[in-house]
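Amino Acid Chain and Its Fold in Token Form
===========================================
Scope: a single protein chain, as residues and as a discrete description of its fold.
Amino acid sequence: labelled as such and written in the usual single-letter residue code.
Position: the record begins directly beneath this header, with no further notes in between.
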Amino acid sequence: MSDLRELYQEIILDHNRRPRNFGALKTANRRAEGNNPLCGDQITLYLDVEDEVIRDVSFEGSGCAISTASASLMTDTLKGKTVAEARDLFARFHGLVAEPPAAPGGADPDLGKLAVFSGVREYPMRVKCATLAWHTMKAALESRDRPVTTDEEGA
């Protein structure tokens, strides 16, 4: 199990050091801002959605390793997904990091690399770091015009 944990840590560190899809997206037609006042994480998420499909996605901002890696892995995962699939991923990811595992050993196998965040549930203060990008994505899909904050109910 410690080998798996080390692998997970390495993936998180890699996505923190070299975040994928980082920078403003010129073709974005949806945008949202989010912040985690407790940790200082801040993110702006850009989505290019056409015919209910996320064609492209990127982010800007700064934050802790968990927050940055989560945004990086999320953007990789969302490209090409439908809006409905993105909402489903939001719910499954939130369950992964915030709820006890449904089965022994278990992260949802359909989450792929996102499973690296399964250990976050052991550190409740870090759940908001891991989910900030996801709540911001949900706000962008809903075209909310006010920033998302992890102080809100359900964040």
